[in-house]
Fold this sequence. Notes:
The structure is a homodimer. Chain A is an alpha/beta fold. Chain A has one domain: TIM Barrel (Alpha-Beta Barrel), CATH 3.20.20.140. In chain A, about 40% of the residues lie in helices and about 10% in strands. The first copy, chain A, has helices at about 5-10, 25-30, 50-65, 75-85, 105-110, 140-155, 165-175, 195-205, 225-240, 260-265, 300-305, 310-330, 335, and strands spanning about 15-20, 35-45, 70, 85-95, 115-120, 155-160, 180-185, 210, 245-250. In chain A, helix 11 (about 300-305) crosses helix 12 (about 310-330). Chain A is globular and about 45 Å long. The interface of A and B includes residues 73, 111 and 344 of A. Chains A, B: GO terms for molecular function: metallodipeptidase activity. Chains A, B: This is Putative dipeptidase.
Amino acid sequence: MSLPQTFASRGPRIDAMQYDNWSEKIFQQMREGGVDAVHVTIAYHETFREMVANIEAWNRRFQRYSHLILHGKWASDIALARQTGRTAIFFGFQNPSPIEDDIGLVEVVHSLGARFMQLTYNNQSLLATGCYEQEDPGLTRMGKQVVREMNRVGLVVDMSHSAERSTLQAIEHSERPIAITHANPAFWHAALRNKSDTVLKALGQSGGMFGFSLYPHHLKDKSACSVQSFCEMIARTAELMGVEHLGLGSDLCQDQPNSVVDWMRVGRWTLDVDYGEGSKAQPGFPDQPAWFRDNRDFHNIEAGLHGVGFGAQEVAAIMGGNWLRFFENNFVPAKAQAGAAVHPHEIAV
Amino acid sequence: MSLPQTFASRGPRIDAMQYDNWSEKIFQQMREGGVDAVHVTIAYHETFREMVANIEAWNRRFQRYSHLILHGKWASDIALARQTGRTAIFFGFQNPSPIEDDIGLVEVVHSLGARFMQLTYNNQSLLATGCYEQEDPGLTRMGKQVVREMNRVGLVVDMSHSAERSTLQAIEHSERPIAITHANPAFWHAALRNKSDTVLKALGQSGGMFGFSLYPHHLKDKSACSVQSFCEMIARTAELMGVEHLGLGSDLCQDQPNSVVDWMRVGRWTLDVDYGEGSKAQPGFPDQPAWFRDNRDFHNIEAGLHGVGFGAQEVAAIMGGNWLRFFENNFVPAKAQAGAAVHPHEIAV
């Protein structure tokens, strides 16, 4: 089979976190930016049934924009996307709300395509503790059971919004590597959402993945952050935990109205205003840095990584090669991963 | 690959309808009876969320009894089941209640494994009319839309419990063949659930499938029905609509308490008692005929079919070959069926 030039000439570009106001324009920008795969959020505070309604909306997009995107279920769908000039869209939850109090839903949501699930979103959940709580008692009884079931079916534990002790316990308790899909190191920019050296080291030693965020509240100097500062931070993180554990998770929230960041922060859990990482003076979405406005700007990061001294193979690994390997190993059921007979019989709609 | 003797020596045995009180005993009996695939009901009146809870219960059975059964999603799973000495379990609904009023759920339930959906269960539904209603206005506006969507994703229309006009309209409106998974001809035993010659002919001419029921209320002489009478009826039906459109759909409800038949009949739609096909004198499950008590008795039907003059190939077709061909053609999305590129990448849990 003859492949488009781009397929042969570079490795995959994978973004492990976006929550845009989805439109043909954005999918077209993914193509212009050469983005082969994106992990998108389909639940912040949604119940199971509400999350299913979000899948229904995605199914309509997969039909309507079938020339631009496809539903990514397995790592091999990224190869299919590259061969057909499209972007593979993988589903994930930023909160365990879609499994409600029912561990049986873990396998069900995996059947529906969920591939990442955060154990917490800022607050205490049924499973673990979020990064904005005062106390962090660690994984709950149900949390330990759910992590084991996630390991079995191939649903990746994501601790991006979790508190420190819960995160370390998740790394310890999980039999398969976990991910922090979108955050930055606290050594570079101190924020409750950014991660300590302790977490970064434990994550790397356990074979986990860390995705660097482009969300201004996670950046040093926020919207004014320079691409050089961002890439120097990546170089320091590579020294701390190994370049093979690093990728991107931009947290791009393109074209979203501020009502959406309100929903993320407030959900249905409070009657008060909660500004999250923002403030009364800056309640809405902050401006993106000039060098990363949308999916067409990944080349700026690629150039920046070369500029701070990464070699070509390292740059390719950070831009998507590491995520591709992680997807290959961690989306399949544990039984399949262990070398048991697999049965390739699914047919894409 | 070397196959067990049974795989080489006979065609598949497929039962297109059971709703047993599932247990290891019953799965063991499926193996003893050489039953390669069973279409099981996972919803009578359940909402979407309640149906998902039934899938969760099946997922636990698939884990616990993995030496006896596996989740059948595609026709090729029947070959896998035969190669590994197990029975493939396919999901279906006897009522469209799990899709609620939401056409987007058609694709979602197909993703979860649903392969048959009745448009009605005895009563009027949002989609069509059941066989116990006085009036039969035919497919509704939503019914026509849902049939088209079922055709697209590969969810088979089943009219077993539907009224005559609705059934004929479903055959006419559906772009892919439909099924009547479990019923008998009215010419043999007049019952509201049994089907007219008009329906049988239209079903055969459209490439559809008819599954013969072993439920005593559908049998001439009910529990006292003889296997010879049953097989003579099959021979007459073959003359009417062609042997290639015939299979079995036993409607076996083994080990179920009578509370279950109450749920089937009454659901949540009435506060009165409804005896359905039963009566005040015989309100519960009737006794099975002596020659078909459970999954170990399919050989009695096979012998009976030989006894009324069917040839070996015809018997094999009725015992499962016809259903296998129907599963192969009708569970895959229309796009895949039409010869578009398919992408075998699913991995069984």
